[in-house]
Amino acid sequence: MDRLTNTIRPYAWGSTTAIAELVGAEPTGEPQAEMWMGAHPGAPSRTGRGALNEVIDADPERELGKDAAAKFGPRLPFLLKLLAAGAPLSLQVHPDLAQAKEGFADEERRGVPIDAPNRNYKDANHKPELICALTPFDGLCGFRPPAETADLLEALEVDSLKPYVDLLRAQPEEAALREVLTAVLTADREQMAETVTEVTAAAQRLGGAYEPYAGIAHHYPGDPGVIAAMLLNHVRLQPGEALFLGAGVPHAYLDGLGVEIMANSDNVLRCGLTPKHVDVPELLRIVRFEATDPGVLRPEASPSGEEVYDTPIDEFRLSRFVLPEGTAPHDLTAATPQILLCTAGSVRAGELALTPGQSAFVPAGEKAEVSGGGTVFRATVVA
Questions:
Q1: Can 378 be counted among the known catalytic residues?
Q2: Is 206 within 8 Å of 154 (Cβ atoms)?
Q3: Residue 367: exposed, middle, or buried by beta-carbon count in 10 A (0-12, 13-18, 19+)?
Q4: 90: number of CA atoms within 13 Å, CB side?
Q5: First-last CA distance in the chain
Q6: Distance of CA 95 to the CA centre of its chain
Q7: Backbone conformation region of residue 183, classed left if phi is above 0, alpha if psi is from -120 to 50, else beta
Q8: Measured distance CA(142)–CA(248) in Å, rounded
Q9: What's the confidence (pLDDT) of residue 119?
Q10: Which among 82, 4, 83, 11 is positioned nearest to 39, based on CA atoms?
């Protein structure tokens, strides 16, 4: 079992206090957005044996287990994070596996540099993800029914929104959502900025259901993504609740601290709330234009005390243990690789003492027990 030393990413949208408070450190005054735990080459965790990606590369079958290495290849198939949003992240979607392979191959054929700002596909993998709240956590997830969005927009009493309201009421669901999102993202930028300014003032005046969108507009004045965001369901997670975000589902995180796990990919198609590249035609190819319930997940408890967040993919499996002080050790030995993350109290993982924000990598087949008084998240795969 290896204690992990992890990198904190200082993205501008990150909270200046949330991660520091969790780990019991003084805030630096700078944003701390994500703490990465895993073997992603962009910021691999470090162990006493070296960088985790290099440790795995040296002997994939030993570190990952024979079945996981055969199923997912010689790399850790997930990335675990602490995510601390102090401002909204970009509104985005992720491709499915076939779309990612096709998009990556196309950009490779066209010679688009891997680090080019207009590059959509950094790899050939999909990027399903799960966010589990540690504090109250606000986000946007999936389209709400068009009729509900029409009512929401109409009540703002902004004349330039009327064509969108009419489309949402007149067209079938898929066509309505597609046409409105396309119109918003391809509208004249100056005219759209004026619309967003009017919408912001109205949302601030009305409050209530409009508060999340007024907050988004505060951070991204004039951005078409403010109107695009109003097409989506607003969700507030309570601690312990989670969201699974599959391919094609538009989403954004707005505020809060959570544990995030995803397939080991960096493929993102953005549709607003960002100064980065927005490829509208490719985005429209990837988005699933259907109204969806956000589907808030609550963990399913097992007799062993493990609480599992059930998802439909195999690249990751996230669970947690809430351990009362003095309980007998839980045996977590498995034939798959694991990362253990403490988020509350103090726990022992094998010979390692873990406090909030500390984590450990457990190679496949290595004996692993957890005990103590606290909360520990367990990330592994389904092999």
A1: no
A2: no
A3: exposed
A4: 15
A5: 20
A6: 14
A7: alpha
A8: 9
A9: 93
A10: 4
